[in-house]
Amino acid sequence: MKPFLLLATRSEDEAADDEYNGFLAAGGLRPEQLHRVRLEAGPMPPIALDDYSGVIVGGSPFNASDAAETKSAVQRRVEGELDGLLADVVARDYPFLGACYGIGLLTSYLDGVVDDTWSEAAGPIEVSLTADGEADQLFGRVAPRFEAFVGHKEACTALPTGAVLLATGENCPVQAFRVGQNVYATQFHPELTQAGILTRLRVYHDNGYFEPDAYDDVIAAIDASTVTEPATIMKAFVQRFGTD
Fold first, then answer.
1. Domain residue ranges in the chain
2. In this predicted model, what pLDDT tens digit does every residue of 134-189 receive, in sequence order?
3. Which residues contact 71 (CB under 8 A, 6 or more apart)?
4. Taking the complete model, does pTM exceed 0.85, yes or no?
């Protein structure tokens, strides 16, 4: 199988490595089957899509919808590079999965609306599939309602033209969509486990993903959650698009 490509943007090694390991485990991948490029560390190298089975863009401390003048030089470079890659991905209907920051980037690239209207504090939520989600080749493999982990300051408020809504949530209407047949984006994290989100909370404790006085409640909700279905979506992505 050709490897998949993870384009990461977390500068904190603990969070970056936990994200990588989360995608490995969720996808049932070996390290040689998931090539990682940490874009925050330096310019994107030349990428030949035909060398990979698919591209994954994970979460980030970056927010795609932040005002341009507030973005760092690194964020502006990263988003310019990813815009160029997304142009090829969308034009070719190339296998892609963008999670959290990835859904913001894809929505922005396709001229949908990303803003802070539907932000969600870190923790578990209930996700509900739409009829299109239940019929989808990836999402149709999971239960119509399932728990997932989120934590985001921005979200898709208006779908890009032609996008198919696959999943929704009570406090964030767009939890997943598809463009074409092979380009996917999720607001929730398909790679996160209970241990993984606890690592994120520790690393990003002061980044505003939850109210400081609500920390104990956040931990209690995570401990009481049963989050298994999102990894099934990641595994389905690997099984469907893994190619020789």
1. 4-241
2. 999 999 999 999 999 999 999 999 999 999 999 999 999 999 999 999 999 999 99
3. 62, 79
4. yes
Q: Which residues make Cβ contacts (< 8 Å) with residue 191, sequence separation at least 6?
A: 19, 22, 23, 25, 26, 58, 99, 230, 231, 234
**Res 243: pLDDT:** 77
How far apart are the two ends of the chain, measured CA to CA in Å?
4
Looking at the domain covering 4-241, what would its CATH class be?
alpha beta
Cα 188 from Cα 139, distance rounded (Å): 13
CA distances (Å), 45 to each of 42, 52, 135, in order?
Answer: 9, 14, 37
Per-residue pLDDT tens over the stretch 7-38: 999 999 999 999 999 999 999 999 999 999 99
Max alpha carbon distance in the chain (Å)?
50
Quick check: helix, strand or coil at residue 212?
Answer: helix
